[in-house]
Write a structure and sequence with these properties.
Two copies of one chain form a homodimer. Helices cover about 40% and strands about 15% of the residues of chain A. Chain A is α/β, with parallel strands linked by helices and about 375 residues long. A seven-stranded mixed beta sheet of chain A has the order 2-10-9-8-5-3-4, with helices on both faces. In chain A, strands 1-12-13-11 form a four-stranded mixed beta sheet. The radius of gyration of chain A is 21 Å and the shape is globular. The mean pLDDT of chain A is about 95. At the A-B interface, helix 1, helix 2, helix 3, helix 4 and helix 10 of A face helix 1, helix 2, helix 3, helix 4 and helix 10 of B.
Chain lengths: ~375, ~375
């Protein structure tokens, strides 16, 4: 077996993630590896923490990057906070709400489902009803931006309900962070997780997470050990917490260089500017897609700018179109997922991918392939 | 808050890991990110699998890289294989045996401890006795190369005992893979995990794992769901298994480029040659350390070539010496861990770090700082 070095063909990434990585982030990624307890690295980690706090708009001291992809960030929230027998109201309007349910079940919790149609936002009214019907619920869990459908839910209203009913909110912000408005402290979010590979323009593999003081208190009051050793935040905080950094596991050093650079770029641009850029690029893409006769899965009012799910037009071959885009134009768009598999495409405009050259390339390439 | 890009000072990494990353691996890491379902990436993943099989010397079809550091690889073995109430004989002769125990307890298993002094190998006789005393045990778990002490245990003899008693072996090869002899199929190892950042000369963040047919059968016969969704190998195999790659979580694309390159380099050198190189560099380092009057924690017979734990000489200030090495020579060596904290240093010769220029730099720098 003699293998050649791997040389990927550069692609334009306009799927559901990973999205285009900023060139400065790739550069940062390849910088020399140093030790995870090196004073230089520890100082950088303090900056990473401050930058995640900025991106989440929070002052939570408990703000870290989990050393694994977004689905481990999700699991971090559930394994640390939900104890066996506890009731969690889980909103399901796509793939990731269902994944939350599976997390609840695996830690021995009880999931009360609030279902909404794929492509629609989580119904605030139904959640209010569920909270009223289940006064013993301890958590409300929902996805802010459903990557499988492109629907944006009203996180502010949902978290207000959670506070009113004194339950903790657990919010999936994998696709929303950096792409649309998100204010952890102002909205009163208790536990939130995201991913590095969406609107942060970073490589996949890390998951920013933040817990409110109430979530930390819940964790500290546990009567059973956290079922996962790797994701046990009572141990991880020894490394991320202030003062002496004690060894828990070896931090993914180079990926954290990349996250540092991507968050630094976001902060340089300014969150509000980044949200506005995603919106502007979405408007331009939307106009072009409609000209091509494509229609959106999600109503305009709750449509995510950074994830555009459109129905596959009649007569078009799903796989053949995506392959042609990839092979002829080095352009990746996403397939449908779950209920939308074979029925929709998902066109991402995430982070560094949300720029004019990508929008016009995507529209022109789709035009050539479809017509 | 205006932050500058992070520019780490290049270091020579001779601690317990991360170790020096091969320059070609860093280059591979920074290559353009493509989609985790891109046909080019999927083809590369097939090569990664074949290369991990080579490194482990196994033909196990169930051979993957977990998308997280070595401690998640450890957890992958325990959460998938050990069910509540099952008895595991756990050998503890350092930090990582104790971590295995914690994993067993968290999945609801019962850990029967076989303790040996820190710095000594796992006693084959004690394990034989424990297996005889506990005919209801289902697993034998031990660390092949204890990173906290530098002791090598006789994995071949221990796995032979496991087979004789019809229990499954779970082996920690985080520090051994690529550094000393390891033959998964020949020795009959059932579940094994390693880390990317030790003797593979790769960046931290990935964990190669392999399960034997017997381990897979145990997983398939589970009567309870795997407690972790993220690490549930019945789901992950949908992505790594042959045929259609279905989405489970977003693979850490760039880190996998790096792992591909590091394994390719290992295969090019040849496993036996890599083992011999670690041994030769160790001999050279050992001669120099003894000249400096430093003595080893571990007896010669069970000393790891790639992890040299030496007692801190009387009169030397642990932190001051390590800081001087780092600040004056950009050389990192490791502190003691657990029982050996403040008592020993750990000098790594792992992967790309096991070369002559590192050995002479380390000896000369230690000489300057100590004398």
């Amino acid at each position: 077996m003699t293998l050649a070095p791997f040389n990927p063909t550069p692609r334009t990434l306009m799927g559901p993630g990973p999205s285009d990585v900023h060139p400065q982030v790739l550069q940062a990624l390849g910088k020399p590896t140093i030790g995870h307890l090196d004073p230089q690295f520890v100082a950088m980690m303090d900056e990473v923490k401050a930058l995640i706090q900025y991106a989440f708009q929070t002052e939570n001291p408990f703000t870290i990057a989990v050393s694994a992809p977004g689905s481990a960030g999700m699991e971090t929230c559930f394994v640390n906070l939900v104890e066996p027998g506890e009731k969690v109201i889980v909103c399901r309007n796509g793939v990731f709400g269902e994944r939350m349910r599976q997390n609840v079940v695996r830690v021995g919790g009880e999931a009360v489902m609030v279902d909404d149609e794929w492509g629609t936002p989580v119904s605030v009214d139904k959640v209010a009803q569920a909270l009223a019907d289940h006064p013993d619920a301890k958590f409300l869990a929902f996805v802010h931006a459903e990557t499988s459908t492109g629907a944006l839910s009203d996180a502010k209203a949902l978290c207000a309900l959670a506070q009113q009913h004194e339950v903790l909110s657990i919010v999936d912000a994998v696709t929303s962070l950096g792409g649309n408005e998100l204010r952890v402290d102002e909205w009163g979010i208790d536990a939130i997780y995201s991913g590095s590979q969406k609107c942060l323009s970073c490589v996949p593999g890390l998951s920013p997470v933040s817990f409110s003081a109430k979530a930390v208190a819940k964790l500290e009051a546990r009567t059973t050990p956290v079922p996962s050793w790797f994701l046990d935040q009572t141990l991880v905080m020894g490394y991320w917490g202030g003062g002496k950094r004690s060894y828990h596991h070896t931090a993914p050093v180079n990926s954290l260089y990349a996250l540092h650079e991507s968050l630094r770029l976001l902060q340089q641009e300014g969150l509000e500017n980044a949200w506005a850029r995603h919106r502007a690029m979405h408007e331009k893409l939307k106009a072009g897609l409609e000209k091509l006769g494509l229609s959106f899965v999600v109503d305009e009012a709750s449509r995510l700018p950074q994830l555009n799910a459109v129905y596959i037009p009649e007569g078009a071959d799903d796989g053949a179109v995506r392959s042609a885009l990839l092979e002829r134009f080095n352009l990746e768009i996403g397939a449908g997922l779950g209920d939308l598999a074979g029925k929709a495409w998902r066109i991402g405009l995430m982070g560094y991918a949300a720029r004019e050259e990508n929008v016009v390339l995507c529209l022109a390439a789709l035009d050539e392939v479809l017509n």
